[in-house]
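Hello again,

I reread your note about wanting to compare the complex against the isolated chains. To keep things tidy I'm splitting this into two emails, and this first one only covers the full assembly. Below are the input lines as submitted, including protein chains and any nucleic acid or small-molecule components. They are followed by the predicted structure of everything together. The single-chain runs will come separately.
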Amino acid sequence: MTAVLQVKGLRTQFATDSGLVVAVDGVDLSVNEGEVLGLVGESGSGKTITALSLIRLVSAPGRIVGGRVMFDGKDLLTLTEREMVRLRGDRISMVFQQPKASLNPVRRIGAQIAELFEYHRGLSCRAAMVQAVDLLGRVGIPAPDRKALAYPHELSGGQAQRVMIAMALALKPRLLIADEPTTALDVTIQAQILELLLDLCRDTGTAMILVTHDLGVIAQTADRVAVMYAGRIVEERAVTDLFDDPCHPYTRALLASMPVQGDVRDRLGAIPGSVPPPGRMPLGCRFAPRCAERIRHAMTICDREEPVLYRVAGGLSRCWLAAPAVVRS
Amino acid sequence: MMVDLLTLDNVSVHYPVFGGVLRRAKRWVRAVDEVSLSIASGQTLGLVGESGCGKSTLGRAVLGLRDLTGGTITFAGDQMATMTEQARRALRRDMQLIFQDPYASLDPRATIGSTIRAGLDIHGIGTRAERARLVTETMRQVGLDPSLADRYPHEFSGGMRQRVVMARALVLRPRLVVCDEPTSALDVSIQSQILNLLKDLQQDLGLTYLFISHNLAVVEHMADHVAVMYLGRIVEIAPRAELFASPRHPYTQALIRSIPQPDPRHRNPPAIAGDLPSPDDLPSGCRFRGRCPYAMGTCATAEPPLLGGPHKAACWLMDKDHTQ
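Full-complex prediction:
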């Protein structure tokens, strides 16, 4: 399989009043053709900043300070802004959490979609509109020729997200980055939107990075999963391996804290404490202060030294427990 | 025999939609429409539904924060509408609310100690020293270190803030707590801490919960009974295990099947198509019929009543005479 995107050592930091905050700290990722990569983590894990960094949409005071983002044989971090603009929406596109905040409120949705075909493909206004209406029909908007004349406020949340998806996939990009695309939607609508995303990506051969906090959504959509914690990837696995046998203590604790259907546990698993604030990272493993395994196995190395990503069945885990015994001692 | 602490009988809350030059009420949004339910003392009723279904309005109505368009609410044997203002004031101590957003529901300029104490001050409970003692005790109960009482909300994480919101509600020693999406703004690892704490407090203090949430899995974990709301109506109400094992209403069935399961080997197609209709322009008959895979003639002409024993559902499929 060929990789559509390869990320090496990505580092993004924010200059704040209390000093530099490293939000994304040496992230490696790759996405293969036609693959769905799930990027999962809690708030503050750096998953959204990672996604925004890939397409260089991090705004000040944030800055990408290191790494490479290889796409189509080029390092996106070395392109000019002008070259990036031509690329976004065409070869790589995005869907965000709040569809209504991402659409222009004072322009009809048909015109907003048609603009893509005019700008990137040089179609005439009329031809672009024909394409736009066709696209609205394909994302399941009823009466697309009439709805093309609607303004964003006239759409429901689910419809607005359908419009965003239509725009994102209009030019058959090689990669789609979807950041919490269903988090603002009701659960019955969420299932519809996820299916639409997967179907369209399959049709256009688009690879997808799906960023979410919801492990249920990941299980239902992803082929491979990267779990982020405190700016780092802590586990990366094939989706069935991750859910059958999660390796990293953080992933395990996260799964145990989810209430699931038919669950008869009286108490949920809880992770004590909270994510360390970005300026005050622990010296060793970033999860060590909250880790139950560290105590159970009386591990002292966790507090001293940070583990790297070690090979495990179907992927990688950033945990001393996954390290070969030689390395651990 | 369990005693009902709270009983709602045919409760409706309608909001006017103003329009036209004279800004007269053109239409009414029936946010809560003829809802009847009850909660036994010490139990949790989970109220679940999607956005706009009226679940939060119902919670506010129970607390007397919304005027009823119709129906009656009875708390501990007393009808709330016929109470004197004085009795109602006393009643407010017995009912408290835990909000969804711990960022928006705390005064940023008040220390958390004074925020938690506010209810005691308002109701004039105890001496100064007694109030301070109650605040300290309540902070311990919700897992907050009492030495933090002089801090401000911005110094706390979301989970800690939600503990402050809980302490503020519990310091008055209420009997009923309306929990309105108490963990929706929190990360899943923090959510589980708060849910566990809510369960512990219920045991220790003998609390009764009206637990409102859009998250069916959370409701299944917390509730003894579950009511499912759709566009202002209760469409199904049953003991928890019953409801999840054999849901009767097609909407409940769809809702349960829509939860993304953390199991990549069982990927489910969407359970239902279509969008929720606008609450100010409801279809005739059953409100769910536009999205219902089993819709039939009767569904368009009449609204199905909520029927059954302890497991009730409002669907014409339950009524043998109408299924033809």
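For quick reference: The two ends of chain A are 37 Å apart (CA to CA).

B.
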